[in-house]
Amino acid sequence: MKLNPYLTFDGNCEQAIDFYKDVFDGQIVMQMRFKDAPPNEMEVPAALENKIMHTTLEFHGCTILASDRMEGGELVKGNAYHLSVNIAAEDEATAAFQSLADGGQVLMPFNDVFWGGKFGMLIDQFGIQWMVSSEHKPA
């Protein structure tokens, strides 16, 4: 069994997933636009045709699934979730934290923590909350 986060964006999914691809040196392994849906399967407003219906980003054994939302209703960005990523190498974890924080808001700086390793929390420029950890190094 595997649990994957599925993120929904308000029209900027492609920009966000490209950003995460660069931060984590990942690969987009699947991407469909709303216009790629089979004819007569779903009504697609012209404004959504080039938006992302589904995308899959893979990096270092991790997967993020995402899409732009369909019209109707309001996208509410909640605070009851975080994407938590543990990166073994401290320098790589630091670089990922700094990249994710660019244009966002640092909630807890990436520093040494009492349980070992380094840890930090932030909200990125797309409103997604992240926890970034480097591996614990026993004394």
What is the level 1 CATH name of the largest domain?
Alpha Beta
Strand order of the largest sheet: 1-4-3-2
Mean residue pLDDT: 91
Structural class: alpha/beta
Run of helices and strands: EHEEEEHEEE
CATH architecture of the largest domain: 2-Layer Sandwich
Domains (count): 2
Summarize the biggest pleated sheet: 4 strands, mixed
* Poorly predicted tracts of residues: none
Radius of gyration: 17 Å
Q: Estimate the global geometry from the Cα principal axes.
A: elongated
- How many distinct beta strands? 8
CATH topology of the largest domain: Signal recognition particle alu RNA binding heterodimer, srp9/1
**Percent strand:** 35-45%
Number of helices: 2
Q: What percent of residues adopt helix (DSSP H or I)? A: 10-25%
What's the end-to-end separation, in Å? Answer: 34 Å
Question: What does this protein structure show overall?
Answer:
The protein has 139 residues and is an alpha/beta fold. The protein has two domains: 63 residues, Signal recognition particle alu RNA binding heterodimer, srp9/1; 52 residues, 2,3-Dihydroxybiphenyl 1,2-Dioxygenase, domain 1 (Roll), CATH 3.10.180. It is built from two helices and eight strands, in the order βαββββαβββ. Strands 1-4-3-2 form a four-stranded mixed sheet, covered by helices on one side. The radius of gyration is 17 Å and the shape is elongated. The N and C termini lie far apart (34 Å). The model has no long low-confidence stretch (mean pLDDT 91).
